[in-house]
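fyi for ur records
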Amino acid sequence: MSFEYSRVLMRPVTEALVEKIRSIDSTVKLNLEKLQSEQNRLAEALKKRRINVVYLAASNNYPEGCFIEDCAVIIGDTALICRPADQSRRGEVGVIRKSLEKDFHLKVHDLKDPNALLDGGDVLFTGKEIFVGVGQNTNEAGAIAVARLYEDYSVISITLTSKLHLKNMISMAGTGVIVIGNSTESKHLYQQIKDLTSNTYYKLDLDSDIPANVLFANGAMIHRSRDEMGTTNCSILDEKIGYERDEVELREFDKLNRTLSSLCLFINRTKTTRQIMSDINDEDINSYSTLTRKGKDYYK
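which gave:
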């Protein structure tokens, strides 16, 4: 069932991220304790919604590994391993691939096209269809790979002009409910959706892109804190959303334009599950072979 999850994968934020950002842009001052606290509060909100939080081992080799959403697309019991546009992040997917197969027994597939680029943050599953944002992080070949694997759903490419991910500006706030930010690009994205889909969605317009990334899981919404959302946006949610909501502050991650969903990789399985602490690390994957899907020429 769409938006019903039993587990979520997370990867701890480490000092390596702070050091990397400092080396790139000394004007961005990150506080590791605040980052860890925000991530932990998100994990607690997910646990409150009966979702087992599974932590994969962190690695200093991949400072941005905590942004786990970019590493895979998971719909039902099928996972597509991504290929981030940022080459320094491509090694992150190995531990994700092995965990999804070994620990969770998902049907795992890799991109065949060597030119395909795909970030999970650019893939929005609505429960009815899949939108893929094509821009600086994901290209058309990546969108085609999504369409070929998830053939039971309509897959629609929409154009991104900024360096941000699709889900920085638009996300699912409920079944059939899309929340959209107020930037020019956000409005352009929603217009593309209206022009290209035959499905009907209820739209929540917010006055900023910052609160436009929300999580809808197990019948509840998780969104940014009321201080971050602002009075107007909170009033909209108070009026329009009748189901339970949880607030999570993300001010420190916001310095990197990162979102609630960027820290999560949700798994929807119907089996009764137990909490798992994976001991798979990056050194385990050196000789790991590429997975293939039988019966699909594209993946042979």
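The radius of gyration is 18 Å. thats all i got for now
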